[in-house]
Amino acid sequence: MDRAGREDAVVQTIIMMIPIVLTATVVPNIEKARGPDWKVRRNQYLEAIAFYKEFSKVYFIENSCYDLASDPAFTSDAKCSILKFPVSESPERGKGYQEFEMLDRFVRDRLTEGCFVKVTGRHIYANFAQLFSFLQADGYKYDVVIDRLVRMRIALTGLFCVDKQVYLRQFQNSYLEMHDQGNVWAEHVIYALLKRHKGVAFFPTTPLLQSDRSPRASDTLKLTVKNLERRVFSALNVRQLFR
Questions:
Q1: What's the rounded Cα separation, in Å, for the pair 108 and 155?
Q2: How far apart, in Å, are the Cα atoms of 209 and each of 50, 123, 179?
Q3: Whole-prediction pTM value?
Q4: Mean pLDDT along residues 137-145
Q5: What's the rounded Cα separation, in Å, for the pair 170 and 106?
Q6: I want to staple 22 with a disulfide (CB 3.0 to 4.6 A). Which of 11, 121, 210, 212 is the partner?
Q7: In the prediction, which pLDDT does 14 show?
Q8: CATH no. for residue 226?
Q9: pLDDT at residue 7 above 90?
Q10: Residue 100 maps to a domain
Q11: Whole-angstrom Cα distance, residue 191 to residue 204?
């Protein structure tokens, strides 16, 4: 095999090993947390695990007081590793703080692959097959694939793909800057960290959260405009989005 062939083989090996990391908190660690109760959340997490296991290996990482070990529905297998992390000592700092605190520990101590896709655990993206195909084919070209909105100065942290070493250099300990009560969200902090980083791309199409509601004509029009913007910006080598 010549050099080009060996390089292609290395790339294909990397592509085949993009795991999906689902971040989870079954029992919210914040008093008066909004959203469904823990029983609904539990079921949503199980649905997400079943969904994402069809695409790649899944790491399910969880940081609440919920006893995963006593729940037979959460079992590690060849395609899903269930990992328990300590409850944060500073839950008042908010969801982003707790999520990235846990993610830091996971990436530093437990992740064996060279990159990963992070999904906020209860989110199921209806067009994930298309998004993941892009990451498998072209994700290795970038350090980070994440949607950044320049007008709002935020990075949409619900879904992104990042090289492990880039995460450790750029993202590690960034949770210490996050504080929801001070309106310093994870989205703000990650945006600022990537502001001058050149190896960043956005997804080629808008990630769509799964919904029971039928799309309206206005939704379809907005989506068409957003995806057109992505195509134009990509062609112009612009790495951030306006909306």
A1: 22
A2: 16, 7, 25
A3: 0.90
A4: 95
A5: 15
A6: 121
A7: 46
A8: 3.90.550
A9: no
A10: yes
A11: 19
